[in-house]
Design goal:
It holds the Pfam family MreC. Belongs to the MreC family. One of its GO terms (biological process) is regulation of cell shape. The chain is α+β, with helices and mostly antiparallel strands. The chain is built from one helix and twelve strands. The longest helix has 110 residues, at 4-113.
Length: 271
């Protein structure tokens, strides 16, 4: 009995070896078919996963490309914005030069229209606490400016010099109530005195009831006196009032000069 057991084991091992050999031979002959079948099953099983991975990969690539493109566009926009800002600054400078040129051209035209020497000046400050009554210019005695000289722009009369230092001068505007200028109605040649008021307007006094006055008549300097040359524009008549018991008409004048925007002026140097 004990002798039969080893023989059975040997037989069993032989049979297993034969089966394995046959299986290997079968795979060798038909392996390609089995592998294709197995590959098909694997591909079908993992196809959704592969598609998902492919989509994620593609999206990741596109996202990275979009980020890189966005950075390039952002840098280009930054450079364009810098160029636009530089262009705007250059345009502002050129515009300011053009405005200054236009003002200086008109000032030169005013200078040529009179036979007087004129000293070009810049307004450098205004009297603190009294915005409209006086200004300071950057010319003084060293430049030939003296007290009681007239000051004007291309628009019209500004005022007169009331005090002078070496390199600056104070100008009393015609709006000041202390100011008095000999005026003439350009159309009718009637003469009166233009004085400052409490507002941004002037009053023209000493015009008789018979004086020929109309709204929008231009008032110019009469030339009477030793300060203001004849023919400088002062302003236009915007109001006329006649009272029966009064000796003179009440006339309101709007100055031609915009005193809130004074930048350049001429000091009129009479011979």
């Amino acid at each position: 009995m004990k002798k039969l057991l080893p023989q059975n084991k040997a037989l069993l091992i032989l049979i297993i070896l034969i089966i394995v050999t046959v299986f290997i031979m079968t795979i060798d002959y038909h392996g390609k078919m089995y592998l294709k079948w197995l590959e098909s099953i694997v591909l079908r099983a993992f196809s959704p996963l592969n598609q998902g991975i492919s989509i994620v990969t593609d999206n990741t690539k596109n996202y990275l490309k979009a980020i890189a493109k966005f950075k390039r566009v952002e840098e280009e926009n930054k450079k364009l914005q810098e160029k636009i800002e530089m262009t705007l600054q250059e345009n502002a400078v050129l515009k300011e030069k053009l405005i200054a040129y236009d003002r200086l051209k008109k000032l030169l035209e005013l200078k040529e229209s009179f036979s007087y020497e004129m000293i070009p000046s810049l307004v450098i400050s205004r009297e603190p606490g009294n915005w409209f009554n006086s200004i300071i210019i950057d010319k003084g005695e060293a430049d030939g400016v003296n007290k009681n000289m007239a000051v004007a722009t291309y628009s019209g009369l500004v005022g007169k010099v009331v005090s002078v230092d070496s390199h600056t001068a104070k100008i009393l505007l015609i709006l000041d109530q202390r100011s008095a200028v000999g005026g003439m109605i350009q159309r009718s040649r009637d003469i009166g005195v233009v004085k400052g008021s409490e507002s941004n307007y002037c009053n023209m006094e000493y015009l008789s009831h018979d004086a020929d006055l109309k709204i929008n008549d231009m008032v110019i300097t009469s030339g009477l006196g030793s300060i203001f040359p004849k023919g400088i524009m002062i302003g236009k008549i915007v109001g006329v009032k006649k009272e029966n018991n009064a000796l003179f008409q009440k006339v309101l004048i709007r100055p031609e000069v915009d005193f809130t925007k004074l930048e350049e002026v001429f000091v009129v140097k009479k011979p």
